[in-house]
User: Fold these one by one.
Assistant:
Number 1:
Amino acid sequence: MEQSSPQQASQQASTAHRICPFCEAACGLEVELSQGQVTRVRGDQADVFSAGFLCPKAVGLKDLHEDGDRLRTPLIKRNGVFEPTSWDEAYAEIERRLLPIIERDGGNAVATVLGNPVSHKMSLMLYFPKLAKALSTHNMFSASSVDQVPKMLSVGLMYGSWLSVPVPDIERSDFLLILGANPMVSNGSLWTVPDFRGKAKALRARGGRIVVVDPRRTETAEVADQHHFIRPGADVFFLLGLVHALFDEQLVKLGRLAGHVTGLEQLREAALPYAPETVAARCGIAATTMRELARTLAGTERAAVYGRIGTCTQQYGTLASWLIDVVNILTGHLDQEGGMMFPKAAAFAANTRGKPGSGRGVTSGRYRSRVSGAPEVVGELPITCLAEEIDTPGPGQVKALIAIAGNPVLSAPNGPRLAAALEQLEFMLSMDIYLNETSRHADVILPGVSPLEDAHYDVTFTQFSHRNHARYSPPVLARSAGQPDEWETLLRLVAILKGQGANADIAALDDALLREDLEKAVGPLTDTVMGMLAPQRGVQRLLDLGLRSGPYGDQFGRAPGGLTLAKIQAAPSGIDLGPMTQRIPEALRTPSGQIELAPQLLLDDLARVAADLAAPAADLVIIGRRQLRSNNSWMHNLPVLAKGAYRCTALVHPDDAARLQLADGGQATVRNGARQIEVQVEVSADMMPGVVSLPHGWGHNLPGTQMGVAAERPGVNLNVLLDENLRDPLSGNAVLSGVPITMAPLQ
Ligand SMILES: Nc1nc2c(c(=O)[nH]1)N[C@H]1C(S)=C(S)[C@@H](COP(=O)(O)OP(=O)(O)OC[C@H]3O[C@@H](n4cnc5c(=O)[nH]c(N)nc54)[C@H](O)[C@@H]3O)O[C@H]1N2
Ligand SMILES: Nc1nc2c(c(=O)[nH]1)N[C@H]1C(S)=C(S)[C@@H](COP(=O)(O)OP(=O)(O)OC[C@H]3O[C@@H](n4cnc5c(=O)[nH]c(N)nc54)[C@H](O)[C@@H]3O)O[C@H]1N2
Ligand code: SF4
Ligand SMILES: [Mo]
């Protein structure tokens, strides 16, 4: 069934379904095809989750598929020049060069780095763990530490698993407080919510209100009822002010969570020094506004506080992430309809596995990075430590790198240092679809498939969806001859690492790995389960296992009528599993079986906040911004998205522009110590005075890349300016927001 539909599609006009892989909204799309060519991409009106919504990026699927710069064969670098090669030769080269490094220096000499698209690719999500296990290195890095790891740490400590992130139940909510997120542009993050605009409009139409707290009057602020500027990095003060006010005005009401929460008294004490009147100057929001917001939250039956990347990528990322949940809990909105609720994903969610109600909880800091001593979190080290692990000699130095769907030379602070470090590696392998700023440093590049050529199920984003559902996309088009699926490529690497050689029988290896996992999970039932899964192979088989053993699954016959892969394959627009439902205490995996309201690690970190309370505002600081027709660093080569006005501009408030003599449209230098970039100024009253906004992911003018469209208008790389040594000490997340700069007109 799977095999025949793409082939048929290449013969005649047809329509196929594909979940969009470009952002977390995960919209269901209809792809119209004729003669094997994409003729049109539109929203699938029948999709049970996204109901026809799509954004301009979706059309980029066609451009991406057809992009002449997209890699279609492996490349090997010989004498500094990339040459196309066969898959066999590429694997042989990897075996020849990688294994001796591991034999000599051990697994820790090899680092891995994963980029954002991994979370949008079922193959990479489900098979990378096998590579990690075979490699066994402490030096694992990913885009998580320039993104959401503070939230993972805070929810891990509070609820007991890393991905137990509550999300706004927007369709039943009457009040939304949004901090450091711009879902009108990003389409939602750690909150899978297609058509935020429509849902926000409906909320307001039923009398609800939206308040946005952001240093920029964003596109989301435009559709909200109220917007407040906040000093970048000061959310922790604002949120402590709210917590203080809730206790102070006796507004705390835990409701049905009362018996499931521990640490209330410690929390009250911790917030005592932070009266709204005390923190107002530090965060830039009036005490009366804070008190009013506290009262509104406490007095509205269905309300939610949501924060995203602006609250994570800053020096108090973990504390701010924690306090957002604290405010929801204190006002009775966690795990309540119209508040913040826990999705129940159909497969792969840790909070649906094991004994309901308690568990081992999470631990961080099981080991530390060699050079800076940064703690491990979620099995990873901060990506801002990668360069120093490569360029600092000594025992344990990283000598080789496997980079998968990541572009840290642009996406991580101090890209130039990382680029130089990558050149020092003895061996680097990239799995990527472009020869770009990062993969140009590789010795071997193995191309990934076009999203139209692989099957998809949202392993990650079903875990953050505002409504439970299960959807599956078979490949829209057949893969070109010889091109493996990405899970097959990963298995081939596992075979190499296990010493089975590049020519190993990977189907047999796949069976053996699955058998190993099943023996641990179901013991004597292993053969029966293997037998029942047998019709599926590879990644589909793992998905079938996840679905069938998941909370809606058929439990291999014990719950007849339950979900199986076959069942979702038969529903091209997906299966709706209903709105979120109450999950406390069942979803908890903390050792105490309670919500930990005041984890000691977090209380201890408040010492930094206390010391910082009187810090004067820097004259000028920089923050980031996302753009609708762009996705981090890698969609600037798609003509349909790249066209239009120049977008990599630095937004500057008119008062700052006047005082610094910066002209609208003029060029300016931006400095952070010795680091410097040149930008085009856009004067904008939407900025908070003293704050400049520049998008990230640009800077496509580096030599040795092959992205012709992107190179025409390269933009500048914000991360050249940012300091790789600035991290939230608890999570290791990079500080990307609120970094002091100076600006001057370019003479
Ligand atoms: N200053 C600043 N920096 C930031 C941010 C910020 O807000 N400000 N945001 C951060 C955030 S949230 C994130 S998530 C990171 C992203 O950081 P990265 O993940 O490092 O960056 P991307 O630009 O998403 O790069 C994705 C890479 O995957 C490749 N790719 C795309 N699709 C596929 C595929 O199907 N298979 C394979 N094998 N490769 C593929 C692309 O060619 C590209 O090389 O950037 C971070 N950097
Ligand atoms: N079109 C598009 N969509 C995307 C992406 C993209 O590049 N383009 N990237 C995807 C990725 S990888 C992610 S992680 C998500 C991110 O999703 P969002 O978090 O919604 O993304 P942003 O638009 O960066 O919104 C962050 C907001 O935080 C504000 N901010 C900055 N510093 C602070 C601060 O200190 N405090 C507060 N309160 N606010 C602050 C910024 O002004 C900005 O408006 O978007 C995803 N979706
Ligand atoms: S909102 Fe995101 S998932 Fe939906 S079409 Fe746009 S890029 Fe794709
Ligand atoms: Mo991200």
Number 2:
Amino acid sequence: MATMRFQSTRDVGVTAGFSAALARGLAPDGGLYVPQYWPAIALAELSAAQDLPALAAGLIGPFAEGDALASSMAAICAEAFSFPAPVVDLEPGRLAVLELFHGPTAAFKDFGARFLAACLARLRPPRSPTLTILVATSGDTGGAVAAAFHGRPGSEVVVLFPQGRVSPTQQQQLTCWGGNVRAFAVRGTFDDCQRLAKQAFLDEPLRQARELSSANSINLGRLLPQTVYYAATALALAGPGGEPVSFVIPSGNLGNAMACIWARRLGLPIGEIVLAHNANRTVPEFIGGAPWRPRASVTTLASAMDVGDPSNMERLRAFYPDDERLRAAVSACGVDDDAIRARIRADYRRLGRIWCPHTAVAAEVYARLSEARRRAGRWVLVATAHPAKFREIVEPLIGREVPVPASLAELFARPSAYREIEADLNALRTALARDETEAGE
Ligand SMILES: *Cc1c(COP(=O)(O)O)cnc(C)c1O
């Protein structure tokens, strides 16, 4: 039986097995892990899969071949894919929306975070020291990671978020967990939070006191599970004729889009892939022919996509080493906040649909495609979050309350607790140690 290995985007000689790649996150040379080869997937078998967990096991299983986790893949997928990813028609036969917001924190990041947590839990020998997952967040990632690890023995989560710079709804989702999840409001920006997390991973005293890990979005264990809902949607809509299905994907760090490209590479009937960006136009400008020019991010209504230097670009460029081939393989478009607002209003009136600001970016980018392109095949808008997560933005635009799904209502009802810290490593060290003493009292 073949053993799958993963190689660094920077050096094909730096490799790891499935488990090691997930545990490490980043390759030791600073690159990102990508598969050494593309396994042959039996599409007929995948099509016959009865549900999302079965399809997930069929699709991800070959990537874990020869690894310690291979035999647990069915159980891991059953645990991670415990909620649906429905495809809802907007214009029958032409346009549909893939709803990725039915998980515990109502954003697509639940899929990746839950898969990674289910894998890491099985990699730790019994009675190993507590694993501390340190996660810097500007909003959605922290909540998804906290939810995925909450209540799991042997692990704790420390969320770092910028004080006063996340919405009240987002803050509630970061600070409502208790138990093995702690939230620190950092007096600084998101960049300060990220810097603190990086410093912590390099800090000898901290690393001696606890085993640190990140559940960063560049982790292979968050990317691979995201191929599953593209596969499910493409197989469901392509029909027996295998007509390819095209996707418009709200994008920031390009993890979700990369997963779609991988799914297409695995042979799924996927046609066009359109990257929908907000006013952070690094990617649309590059795809449009300009040189690659990463920059600082600008703040927009679609805040989870406020990225000026997308981390997964390194994977994308490793996949298409020739820029011109990359530019032929995907397209990209950037839209500003005014267009997001107008699209939320218009589609509520026209379709009765309420979009979150990120999904609205995809809806707007689709609307800007030429009529000929839109008519050329079936299209799917990817809905990355539930609008109730961004109700402060959405409700004034549509003039009504956004219905809150049960999973979010439960989170909103929990008591919130967090500690404020200065944006420096000493403060983080002290806070980590102090909370432990208190918990022991
Ligand atoms: C994270 C996020 C995105 C961007 O996804 P990437 O994989 O970083 O491109 C889009 N929408 C929502 C709601 C998100 O939370």
